[in-house]
Amino acid sequence: MNNWIEKDLKYIWHPCSQMKDYETLPPIVIEKGEGIYLYDTDGKKYYDVISSWWCNLLGHCNPHISKAVKKQAETIEHVIFANFTHKQAIRLCERLSKILPKGLCKFNFTDNGSSAVEAAMKVSFQYHQQTGNPQKTKFMALTEAYHGETIGALSVGDCDLYTKLYKPILMDIVRVKGPDCFRCPYRKNRDNCECECFEHAEKTFEKYGEQTSAILVEPLLQGSAGMKIYPPLYLKKLRELCNKYNVHLIADEIATGFGRTGKMFAFEHAGVSPDIMCLSKGLTGGYMPMAIFVTTQKIYDAFYDEYNTGKAFMHSHTYSGNPLACSAANAVLDLLEDGRILEQANKNALYFNNLIKEKFLPHPNVGEVRHIGLINAIELVEEKQRKKPFAPDLRIGYQIYKKALMEGVILRPLGNVIYFNPPLVITREEMDKVTDIALKCLNSILPAKK
Ligand SMILES: *Cc1c(COP(=O)(O)O)cnc(C)c1O
């Protein structure tokens, strides 16, 4: 074990990890990155096809973004964002307002995804308090949702792995049974269904709509649930239902924003706008921690009054609107704005999905291959016909992860779902290579022939 690893384990408590696992698989010390590649201190190269926790959008050490951040660091690194402002933030909001779904025009900055979710919830609640609906104190969210891990964000989430233990200290959330397209109880197909499962939302709104402030959704893609994908029609129906009950629709686009689903924002697929949208991850291309919630003029106006009315939104984070982060986000937009990167990514996305279907679908333990944009998920099952899942304690995904790491590919499955969520700039040759390696690793853990 080299010296760095020893010291790491002496001091660092890594996120989302059983630290004891590091006894057999120590943390990998990354030295540098370039494009979709990471290099460790021994010079070993890794394909980063998970975009470093889904945030690296345009490759590691992207020269244009690096240059912008460097320049900003030499100009002004931090500005207190109450009573002061700066050009990078102003430019960023002006540019975002031109590409966001219609009506989203007021920007509030935080410094991570969870905090943006919580700020969005607070703003929704306060809006109703200040517009004559004090009974609207509840929040709704979908089954298997993930919205972050601070107490409020964890409350709206529904992944047992993260929430179960903390239930006694979490908020009471109204849970809407969401879409489950792979195991659709109506025996429909996500490409041509009428979202029959929306009946659950309708029933829940009938019962709790009047008391509800907002419903949170991860549009089209429930990431942490195992890259579960559902059709845009669901969002369209939800928009109408929210209008009917005066419930805010909060879009958590933290994972789906900035081209991940083939459009700039997942909500575009549905052709409707949410009332509040949360952004982070790809926002800065993975350079700096920053998040934003964006909302409508209507919501903003309910807070706009004389100071002594007490209607202001008294929410702040020290790093709100940090100039370095804003400069990274502006650099990301420089690269995305002309549309060529996304266009190329969309062409490659079809290639990637076909490649994965071809290679993986024949395997007896592959239950489904699903994709949206460049994101592809391979759901492993014990029995294909009955879609019977593997027992979680077999840790099939983790075994494949370890294997792939040795082969120089970072997969990091979610339970029994192997997925690819690469930077938008991945090439077809790189797709060929990583799918070959991933298949080889799958075959070594779950041999194709019994
Ligand atoms: C990552 C993520 C969050 C939380 O963001 P953090 O910056 O990790 O707090 C919330 N919602 C979704 C959909 C995410 O993918």
Give the topology, please.
Elements: H1 3-11, E1 30-34, E2 37-40, E3 45-48, H2 51-54, H3 63-73, H4 87-99, E4 106-110, H5 113-130, E5 138-142, H6 151-156, H7 160-163, E6 174-176, H8 198-208, E7 212-217, E8 221-222, E9 228-229, H9 233-245, E10 248-252, E11 276-279, E12 291-295, H10 297-301, H11 323-336, H12 340-360, E13 366-372, E14 375-383, E15 388-389, H13 396-406, E16 409-410, E17 417-420, H14 428-445
Parallel strand pairs: 3-16, 5-6, 5-7, 7-10, 10-11
Antiparallel strand pairs: 1-2, 2-3, 4-12, 8-9, 11-12, 13-14, 14-15, 14-17
This protein binds pyridoxal-5'-phosphate (PLP).
Question: Any overview of this molecule?
Answer:
The chain has helices at 3-11, 51-54, 63-73, 87-99, 113-130, 151-156, 160-163, 198-208, 233-245, 297-301, 323-336, 340-360, 396-406, 428-445, and strands at residues 30-34, 37-40, 45-48, 106-110, 138-142, 174-176, 212-217, 221-222, 228-229, 248-252, 276-279, 291-295, 366-372, 375-383, 388-389, 409-410, 417-420. It has 450 residues and is an alpha/beta fold. It folds into 2 domains: 3-62 and 339-445, Alpha-Beta Complex (Aspartate Aminotransferase, domain 1), CATH 3.90.1150; 67-336, Type I PLP-dependent aspartate aminotransferase-like (Major domain) (Aspartate Aminotransferase, domain 2), CATH 3.40.640. The chain has a 7-stranded mixed beta sheet with strand order 4-12-11-10-7-5-6, sandwiched between helices. Strand 8 (221-222) and strand 9 (228-229) form a beta hairpin. Helix 3 (63-73) runs antiparallel to helix 11 (323-336) and helix 12 packs parallel to helix 14. The radius of gyration is 22 Å and the shape is globular. The two termini are 37 Å apart. The model has no long low-confidence stretch (mean pLDDT 97). The protein binds pyridoxal-5'-phosphate. Pyridoxal-5'-phosphate binds next to helix 5. Pyridoxal-5'-phosphate (PLP) binds at residues 112-114, 117, 146-148, 218, 223, 252, 254-255, 280-281.
